[in-house]
UniProtKB/TrEMBL annotation:
Residues 40-132 form the Methyltransferase domain. It holds the Pfam family Methyltransf_25. Signal peptide: none annotated. This is Methyltransferase domain-containing protein. One of its GO terms (molecular function) is phosphoethanolamine N-methyltransferase activity. It comes from the Bacteria. It catalyses: phosphoethanolamine + S-adenosyl-L-methionine = N-methylethanolamine phosphate + S-adenosyl-L-homocysteine + H(+).
Length: 238
């Protein structure tokens, strides 16, 4: 069986795997005006770590969406254990099965880059209310990448290109977002040197050794390309 990077994250139940980790997620929302009436979509929710935090911290209306059945299963278990009234949807972020202008906020943590980016950003735009906010954390090229770099990235993540910061901003504006700000930027090299936070794990009972090999390849790529790729947090207003 051929596994993907997303399969490895799902079966190991990795939470807070995105650069900056869970503590950065909490910092982001600390500066936002979230109330109990705010409707938030956690697009690509994984094991539900961020969704649970938002529901517990702000008592807001949270929907958790992920395409991977194992991720959704683990998210539902988390929500049930904590008695959280979070709606879950198993679906792709490229085709979100909700009505137009539903959410005040969308949070997407290391998800969009693994999809058809323009299609996904357009779908986020569709389901955001007018004036709604999209917050995305995504892999970003620090400059032009060599073809051999792209090959390494593609072999592990299944993606054929990585956008630069300017390319992300241009695409967001082309889709229709009125205001795009960079909340945080960092190279992987800098992030690795200062990061002390470890992700959480909710490991499935049976793990194929091929899945660990994928995570090891991920570590190798991030080490080899630490000065060439990084991440950005974009805050975009509809």
């Amino acid at each position: 069986m051929a596994y993907s990077y997303q399969d490895a994250l799902a079966y190991y139940g990795v939470g807070g795997a995105h650069p900056g980790g869970f503590s950065l997620t909490k910092q982001i929302f600390h500066n936002e005006n979230i109330t109990h009436t705010t409707k938030i979509l956690d697009a690509g929710c994984g094991t539900g770590q961020t969704s649970a935090y938002l529901a517990e911290m702000y008592k807001c209306d949270v929907t958790a969406l992920d395409i991977h059945p194992v991720m959704i299963e683990k998210a539902k278990k988390r929500f049930k254990e904590r008695d959280l009234p979070i709606n879950t949807i198993q679906s792709s972020v490229e085709n979100i099965p909700v009505s137009d202008q539903t959410y005040d906020y969308i949070i997407s943590e290391s998800v969009t880059v693994f999809t058809n980016i323009e299609k996904t950003l357009t779908e986020y735009f569709r389901v955001l209310k007018k004036g709604g906010i999209l917050i995305t954390i995504d892999m970003t090229a620090e400059g032009p990448l060599h073809s051999s770099d792209i090959t390494m990235i593609s072999n592990v993540y299944g993606i054929s290109y990585v956008l630069t910061e300017n390319e992300w901003i241009s695409l967001l504006r082309e889709v229709g977002y009125r205001k795009v700000n960079v909340l945080h930027s960092d190279s992987l090299s800098s992030h690795i040197n200062k990061s002390l936070e470890q992700p959480e794990f909710h490991i499935s009972p049976s793990i194929d050794p091929k899945l660990m090999e994928i995570l090891q390849n991920h570590q190798n790529v991030t080490s080899l390309l630490a000065n060439k790729i990084g991440y950005r947090i974009f805050k975009s207003k509809r």
